[in-house]
Design goal:
The complex is a heterodimer of chains A (802) and B (329). Chain A is an alpha+beta fold. Helix content of chain A is 26%, strand content 27%. In chain A, the strands form 11 sheets. A 7-stranded mixed β-sheet of chain A has the order 27-30-31-37-36-35-34, sandwiched between helices. In chain A, a hairpin with an 8-residue loop joins strand 39 and strand 40. The longest helix of chain A has 19 residues, at 777-795. The termini of chain A are far apart. The relative contact order of chain A is 0.06. The longest helix of chain B is centred in the N-terminal third of the chain and has 34 residues, at 54-87. In chain B, helix 2 runs antiparallel to helix 4. Chain B has 2 domains: 2-87; 106-326, 2-Layer Sandwich (BirA Bifunctional Protein, domain 2). Chain B has 12 helices and 9 strands. In chain B, the strands form 2 sheets. In chain B, strands 1-4-5-9-8-7-6 form a 7-stranded mixed β-sheet, with helices on both faces. A two-stranded antiparallel sheet of chain B has the order 2-3. At the A-B interface, helix 8, helix 11, helix 13, helix 14 and strand 27 of A face helix 5, strand 1, strand 4, helix 8 and strand 6 of B.
């Protein structure tokens, strides 16, 4: 919202306060000033000049050579305007000035052989209007040499203030002035709206009937007759322009002016276009269409509140007037509407229509039902002042079916201290509240009771008053504590597990990524039953992700595009799946689970002096799973089980099992998924459901005695059929041996024609020990022979090298 | 015999002088010092020496043995040393065999730092769902239905009653419903806003919520705690200010700004967090007596904080996951 400091001065005298103090105080009090626009800066180095003489330019027909006096010196200036003449007072931009419209910086220039030390400006060049027919000729009484901004009172400062949704009362100049009066302890003055009324009574000229008093508790109508609709006087246009509004005509401008003055939206009807000169406030009902004054047809809902005449709707209450009753240059008689509407009703209508106006913005935040009469009188007063012949009808029509009672709230001084941790003087408390318009009804030693002003809808309770006191007193004056007590309740850390996951993966060389949870339907539906947004930004982001895979593949794809092809990435994040086919009505209807996805792609090593290119393969993947799981599950063993590939997104698909539960799966991502993301290199992935992994009981770590007796090792190599897995052999060896055998390590795989077709050799190292004694040669030898026999028998294997 | 000994010594010295490497030295050892070498043979033949000559010959033999052995050892050591220097020449300018240590995303790292500071102040860490109900995200937090305050947070809806949480504040409600005061916790997580993606905003970001509810929690303590936080996070010299603001779930409400002066640019105040005293309506909604208990709450955006700290000016780069970016942190 734009606020003019010159305008504020009408209500609170800020002559002795600097702009930066105003900005600071307002900001600290919660009216955040986002921008400060010092208008006079635009006119720096532009002064009032006196044109002493005008000669024809010796080398150009359409140019003149002028002598401009700035009160001290004469300047030679080339001017192209035909209306320049000796004796004029003009806006003279000196060398160094920046032309407000266009931003050109003036320098000494030679134009057709003659020097020009500045420029005489047109209205358009000064950014003050559209006129560029000639230079702007100023009031001859202005004194040369004075700054142009001061001379024309263009020295205003415009503040852009962000008003929080609770502060409807501050959405006007008087609202902001009221804050300032409290902040600087200055008196607040309202314009006087007592004036002579000479016409008939408003009541005799029009009537108002409220049919829905819930949504329209009060409606003031005031008649002004015999007006002439024309351009507004300069002062009014200047004020509106200063806050970015476009002047239209005196009637519309006055209603806008009063809105920005006091925050009450007004509407002026052409009284002669109102059927039976009657206003009826009712629900739209059967009326479904309405043309607003911007000539657009609006679709109405039956409960939208409408302002109607005897026959038809003439305005959408609180939002926008209708074309059919608009004020036109031919309008003679006006009915000024100053109403109080239910904020929820206006908000609903404004939302339904997708139409937000200065009026609806204020009504939906809550206006002041007590200012309605004042605002109507203020508008009548100003309209009369802007026309030569306006006649203000006597009194107002005040339709106010149900009186709104004012509320009282008590404030305990002790409570202020309890909340703030700081004692504010009782008299200061009283003063702050009084300045903000709270009428103090009674005071005791312990508390005071105030009547709430009707413009403060945000104040209902004691705590609200405490905030008012604190923010005007100044948050920065409330001292910070220098020590706190630490309570000793149980400390919980929901994030610790995932933090460990991240750290283990980092130590294995993985980088963490974070990707968008919103994806297209096409993508998410490939991975599960997706949940859609009812108001997405775009089709690319219309659904919640059902898997972390698409996000990670997008990242891989983008990296490959910038030639980063060797990647070890992971993401920890939530995925969402619908578990019902109907609409989501309950938390049970969908599943939100936390997943981990990690991926390898490209090379483990890009050729180095000690090794050649070495691409990642599935054993890197299983190796990472094993290392990671060993750490995260400390003690619990996992196993990888091959999985039916046709059902999986992976080739070489496997499940990760622990305690008979599947906690994840992985493999080499199938080509079709890679292609979908423009990736033409292998991607190995593991996805783990962290919510399942988290729940696995990790046995408490207990110290294991270090082995005191020697270990005995035996190596053996078998020639086997190629399709025998290492795990199968290990299993048989275990079965054939005693508990002296503790570890079996596969240390060599060899495949060659020399072994025979379809054969391979697997070599194992067997580790034997007993933690209580030294082993004898015989017992080890016995186990070893049993192992060999069993493998030979079961797999029809041959001992290699025998 | 003595001549033989001298001859052997002479031939040993001669052979030794020709030796250039360890292999030929080994041959020399076998020839003279081996089990069946020339020196051993001489010792063998000592038994045939007449008794009276034995001491003399024996002494000469011993001297030969000492001489050959020590000369051999000497040369062996010399050769070994020489070999080391040529075989084990190390070019330290070669790149070593590196092992990559990955890293957490910069947002996680920033959050870690924030968590560390608050854990040190006695805060627990709680998390909650991202797909929330209107009740937890708005209603219980004192956002009246139909109130313009709801416009402060552009919301992605899944149905009219379910939505992507717009802030981490619903976790406050969940926590207060689950446990009784004293409650002191931070609640980090992902939140969503229906805002167009640009350098300044993204459709999702991360927040940390803070909550402390007990019998004597005050605004002065809120200020003290947050000041301690920003000083620890941004540096002890950080300039800050508190100004009044509005959130439906706190009263009084404030925003905290820090003074920000990027290199070569003009300094300005920048909002880093919102905070306030927990609104009594919120306490009533979760069944806590607001006369007995008071509380404070705060919330800050992690992206904003990280961008400030590391001088990042486009939020989108955080979600591009470009390796050249990831490996910088």
């Amino acid at each position: 919202m734009k606020i003019s400091i010159n305008w504020l001065n009408d209500y609170v005298d800020l002559k002795n306060v600097s702009v930066s103090e105003i900005v600071d105080k307002l900001t600290y009090a919660g009216l955040e000033v986002e921008e400060v626009d010092d208008q006079s800066k635009k006119f720096e180095n532009i002064i009032i000049g006196y044109v002493k003489e005008v000669k024809k330019h010796p080398n150009a027909d359409k140019l003149s050579l002028c002598k401009v006096y700035d009160g001290k010196d004469d300047y030679s200036v080339v001017c192209g305007a035909s209306n320049v003449a000796a004796g004029q007072k003009v806006a003279f931009a000196k060398v160094g000035a920046v032309i407000p419209n266009g931003g050109m910086k003036l320098e000494k220039v030679k134009i057709r052989g003659e020097f020009s030390f500045g420029m005489i400006c047109s209205e358009r060049e000064l950014g003050l209007g559209d006129n560029h027919e000639g230079i702007m000729v100023l009031d001859p009484s202005l004194k040369e040499g004075v700054s142009f901004a001061d001379a024309l009172e263009l020295n205003d400062t415009i503040l852009e203030i962000a008003i929080t949704p609770n502060r409807a009362d501050a959405l006007s100049h008087i609202g902001v002035a009221r804050e300032l009066s409290a902040l600087f302890d200055l008196p607040l003055k309202y314009p006087d709206v007592n004036f002579k009324e000479s016409g008939k009574k408003s009541k005799e000229l029009a009537s108002v009937e409220i049919k829905n008093s819930n949504n329209c508790p009060r409606y003031i109508g005031k008649v002004v007759s015999n007006v002439d609709v024309k351009e507004s006087p300069n002062w009014l246009m200047k004020r509106l322009k200063s806050i970015g509004l476009r002047p239209i005509n005196n009637v519309v401008d006055v209603t806008n002016y009063v809105l920005h003055e006091v925050g009450q939206p007004l509407h002026a009807f052409d009284l002669d276009n109102l059927g039976l000169r009657r206003i009826i406030v009712r629900d739209a009902g059967k009326d479904t269409k309405f043309i607003t004054l911007d000539s657009k047809e609006r679709k109405l809902q039956s409960n939208d509140l409408m302002i109607c005449d005897a026959n038809k709707p003439v305005a959408i209450a609180g939002v926008m007037g209708g074309e059919n009753s608009e004020v036109t240059p031919a309008t003679k008689n006006l009915l000024i509407e100053s109403a109080y509407f239910n904020s929820s009703s206006i908000r609903r209508t404004s939302k339904n229509l997708g139409l937000s106006t200065d009026a609806s913005y204020r009504f939906e935040r809550g206006t002041d039902h007590e200012i309605t009469k004042w605002a109507a009188r203020r508008a009548a007063q100003l309209i009369q002042a802007t026309t030569s012949s306006g006649i203000i009808a006597k009194g107002e029509i005040d339709a106010y079916p149900k009186r709104i009672t004012k509320k009282k709230v008590s404030l305990r001084y002790s409570r202020i201290e309890k909340i703030l941790g700081y004692k504010i003087n009782n008299s200061t408390v009283k003063k702050i509240l009084a300045k903000l318009g709270f009428e103090i009804k009674s005071t005791t030693k312990e508390k005071l009771t105030v009547m709430l002003p009707t413009y403060r809808h945000d104040i209902e309770r004691e705590i609200d008053l405490i905030e008012e006191v604190a923010r005007i007193y100044g948050y920065n004056k409330i001292p910070e504590v220098s020590k706190i007590s630490v309570t000793l309740e149980e400390k919980v850390d929901h994030s610790a597990f995932n933090d460990n996951v991240r750290e283990f993966l980092n130590s294995l060389g993985f980088y963490e990524i974070i990707t968008n949870s919103l994806l297209s339907e096409d993508i998410v539906s490939r991975f599960g039953s997706a949940i859609n947004l009812i108001n997405p930004q775009s089709n690319e982001m219309s659904h919640l992700r059902t898997s972390l895979i698409p996000g990670l593949l997008t990242s891989i794809s983008n990296n490959i595009k910038v030639n980063e092809k060797d990647l070890q990435l992971f993401e920890v994040g939530k995925i969402f799946e619908k578990v019902v086919t109907t609409k989501i009505n309950d938390f049970k209807d969908f599943k939100e689970s936390e997943h981990l996805l990690l991926a390898l792609t490209g090379n483990r090593i890009r050729t180095e002096w000690f090794e050649k290119d070495s691409p990642f393969d599935v054993y890197d993947l299983t190796g990472f799973v094993e290392s990671f799981m060993a750490k995260i599950l400390a003690g619990n063993t996992i196993n990888l089980k091959s999985k039916e590939e046709s059902e999986s997104k992976f080739d070489y698909a496997f499940n990760i099992n622990c305690e008979n539960q599947i906690i994840g799966s992985g493999g080499k991502l199938k080509k079709e998924y890679c292609t979908l993301f423009d990736i033409d290199q292998d991607v190995y992935m593991i996805q783990i459901d962290l919510s399942v992994l988290k729940k696995i009981n990790v046995s408490k770590k207990i110290f294991n005695e270090l082995l005191k007796f020697p270990k005995v090792y035996r190596d053996v190599a078998f020639v086997l059929d190629v399709d025998v897995t290492s795990d199968q052999v290990i299993h048989i060896i275990k079965e054939a041996t005693t508990n002296l055998l503790h570890n079996i390590k596969l240390f060599d795989i060899f495949q060659s024609e020399s072994l025979g077709k379809g054969k391979k050799s697997l070599a194992f190292q067997l580790e034997f020990f007993n933690s209580n004694r030294t082993l004898t040669e015989e017992e080890v030898e016995k186990d070893f022979r049993n192992a060999i026999k069993a493998v030979e028998k079961i797999f029809n294997a041959q001992l290699r090298g025998s | 015999m003595i001549d033989k000994i001298n001859e052997t010594r002479k031939s040993f010295d001669e052979d030794l002088s020709k030796i250039e490497n360890l292999t030929s030295l080994e041959d020399l050892r076998i020839k003279f010092l081996g089990r069946k070498g020339l020196v051993s043979q001489l010792f063998e033949s000592l038994k045939d020496v007449p008794k009276e000559d034995k001491p003399k010959v024996g002494q000469a033999l011993n001297q030969l043995k000492i001489h050959t052995q020590s000369k051999f050892d000497e040369l062996k050591e010399k050769l070994e040393k020489g070999q080391k220097s040529s075989e084990e020449f190390v070019d330290l300018t070669l790149p070593g065999r590196k092992r990559v240590i990955g890293s957490k995303h910069i947002l996680t790292q920033t959050l870690d730092e924030i968590k560390d500071i608050f854990r040190g102040l006695g805060f627990s860490v709680y998390e909650g769902p991202e797909l929330e109900s209107d009740y937890y995200n708005f209603e219980a937090l004192n956002f009246a239905p139909d109130h313009p305050a709801r416009d402060m947070q552009d919301t992605f809806f899944v149905t009219d009653k379910f939505l992507l949480r717009t802030h981490t504040s619903p976790v406050q409600i969940r926590l207060m419903k689950e446990k009784k005061p004293p409650l002191r916790a931070i609640m980090p997580g992902k939140v969503f806003r229906n805002e167009a993606i640009s350098a300044k905003s993204y459709c999702l970001f991360h927040q940390v919520e803070g909550l402390y509810v007990d019998t004597d929690v005050t605004f002065a303590e809120l200020k003290g705690t947050l000041v301690a936080f920003v000083k620890q996070f941004f540096g002890q010299d950080i300039k800050y200010r508190f100004r009044a603001s509005f959130f439906p779930f706190t009263e009084p409400s404030a925003e905290m700004d820090i003074w920000w002066e990027p290199k070569g640019k003009q300094g300005r105040w920048m909002e880093i967090l919102g905070c306030g005293m927990v609104d009594p309506n919120v306490l009533v909604n979760v069944g806590i007596d607001p006369e007995k208990y008071t509380g404070y709450a705060f919330g800050m955006g992690i992206e904003r904080t990280a961008m400030r700290k590391y001088g990042i000016d486009d939020i989108r780069i955080l979600f591009d996951n470009d390796k050249r970016f990831l490996t910088q942190f």
